[in-house]
Q: What sequence folds into this?
């Protein structure tokens, strides 16, 4: 199910729109990687102004959900909320369930204030969306699964964010060695991810797009009315009541959710180790 590290990165994923074509100068521009996972999983790269410059869908569910949506040029908060809203209308977030979980991953330089700022903005936007619609669940970030990565980053003499981006780039470029990735700039690592976004999206045919549009219409017809009915049964919240519900979501702890992410992190680590062993074996055989 999971095609990219974005879909399982950091205990996360789970954690890769039809991206607009860009010239080389744009491709090499610096930015921040943002991944949102529910089951549909989506990846964004945003610039220093919080504007989406690249988008990719991590699985077919996300391709169906966003087949007719253009996120390029949107503010990242608005783009994420739109993705969450579509996921809710299509039934991927169950308005009657207590076990919804949304995972947010933001990658860049861990010393960059922009990364933490974007992470906080996106998380708050998602929690407010859930609070205003009486949707229960968790909004998770990847911190609770980073212990191993932090330790490895310290051993390698890099920040955890740089290590995470290097590992992400490795899953895209199988010939890229970790040592080489670690000395690359964040800008160049993000350029690898962004180029992969464009390559994957360019492969979608008109027939595939039409098929996904048809599947989306079926999902929306089945579940959108359920969301509307759910919201209509609850009174409109004041700002204070919204903030109270946001705080409840923020404080929610779920052992099962964390266990799930940790299992996916183990799976991802094994895949990286297998790839490294294969690369080493091929080098020795030459």
A:
């Amino acid at each position: 199910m999971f095609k990219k590290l974005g879909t399982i990165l950091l205990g996360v994923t789970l954690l890769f729109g039809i991206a607009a074509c860009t010239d080389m100068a744009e491709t090499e521009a610096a930015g921040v990687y943002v991944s949102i996972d529910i089951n549909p999983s989506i990846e964004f790269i945003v610039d220093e102004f919080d504007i989406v410059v690249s988008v990719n869908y991590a699985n077919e569910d996300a391709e169906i959900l966003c087949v007719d949506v253009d996120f390029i040029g949107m503010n990242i908060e608005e783009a994420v909320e739109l993705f969450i809203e579509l996921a809710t209308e299509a039934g991927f977030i169950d308005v009657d369930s207590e076990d919804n979980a949304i995972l947010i991953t933001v990658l860049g330089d861990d010393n960059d204030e922009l990364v933490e700022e974007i992470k906080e903005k996106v998380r708050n936007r998602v929690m407010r969306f859930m609070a205003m619609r009486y949707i229960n669940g968790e909004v998770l970030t990847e911190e609770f699964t980073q212990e191993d990565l932090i330790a490895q980053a310290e051993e390698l003499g890099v920040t955890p964010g740089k290590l995470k981006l290097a590992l992400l780039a490795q899953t895209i470029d199988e010939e890229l060695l970790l040592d080489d990735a670690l000395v690359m700039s964040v800008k160049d690592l993000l350029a690898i991810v962004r180029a992969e976004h464009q390559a994957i999206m360019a492969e979608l045919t008109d027939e595939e797009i039409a098929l996904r549009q048809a599947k989306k219409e079926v999902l929306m017809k089945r579940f959108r009315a359920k969301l509307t009915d759910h919201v209509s049964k609850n009174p409109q919240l004041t700002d204070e009541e919204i903030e109270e519900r946001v705080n409840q979501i923020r404080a929610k702890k779920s052992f099962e959710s964390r266990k799930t992410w940790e299992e996916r992190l183990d799976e991802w680590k094994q895949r990286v180790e297998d790839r490294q062993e294969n690369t080493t074996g091929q080098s020795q055989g030459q």
